[in-house]
Give the backbone structure.
Amino acid sequence: MAKDPVARLRVAPGTKVDLGRHATDATLGWEKEWALEELERAKERLDVLQARLYAEEQRSVLLVLQAMDAAGKDGTIRSILSGLNPAGVHVASFKVPGGRETQHDYLWRVHEQAPAKGHIGVFNRSHYEDVLVVRVKGFAPKAVWSKRYEHIREFEQLLADEGTRIVKCFLHVGKDEQRERLQERVDDPEKRWKFRMGDLDDRALWPKFQRAYEDALERTSTKYAPWYVVPADRNWVRNLAVAKILLGVLEDMDPQLPPPEDGIEGLVVR
Ligand code: AMP
Ligand code: MG
């Protein structure tokens, strides 16, 4: 067993995924108080590395977040990216396609939102919706969606070859925990805007969504764009796990500050 609990969340390419065997309430051996402090330390380090990535301006990072409703995609983004320089972060949220988006292939709107060099891009939902909700709700026939896993692998390979480091997190929430969170959205006037009646339809299709997620994770977890199954019933576990996954990618990239112009060393500004 790998020592790093976060490394164990990674879906090894070519392996079967049985989400029923991934606990949604796991703590990964962490205690809450420590995890909250560790998150602050991780964010300080993320801040340093983001600044270097931005200065280097050669490569980018793409964090893909997928999950059932109320698993905490928005909360994760807020918690791990607050404190970073907003100029270097690009968050793209993918909703039901509309307008011109419906006139093109499903990757058209996605490619446009891919992070520019020097940036950290976050996808709040993504091209994976086109093999998840589209499959489960029958918005496209199997003959169409079944070809998409290959497109997606190739698309992500293209991004990776051109300098984007991709990491993908499935925030794995339990069905009971989702019920509580949806109820809270209904009951709390400040949160009610997030609730749509359609969320209940998706909830009723829970097993089908889980199967679709298992297939997507199995078929598209690659060396250059791995999936992680992140336990999401406890926000503090989820936040720290995703922060550590993102930090691991940036540490591994080791972005470099550009060399100073000749004559700057020792220069006295008058
Ligand atoms: P939310 O993320 O809760 O604001 O909701 C966005 C909604 O858009 C979710 O119900 C998604 O399933 C849906 N959605 C996102 N992308 C697609 C897509 N490509 N096709 C159909 N529905 C989508
Ligand atoms: Mg929603």
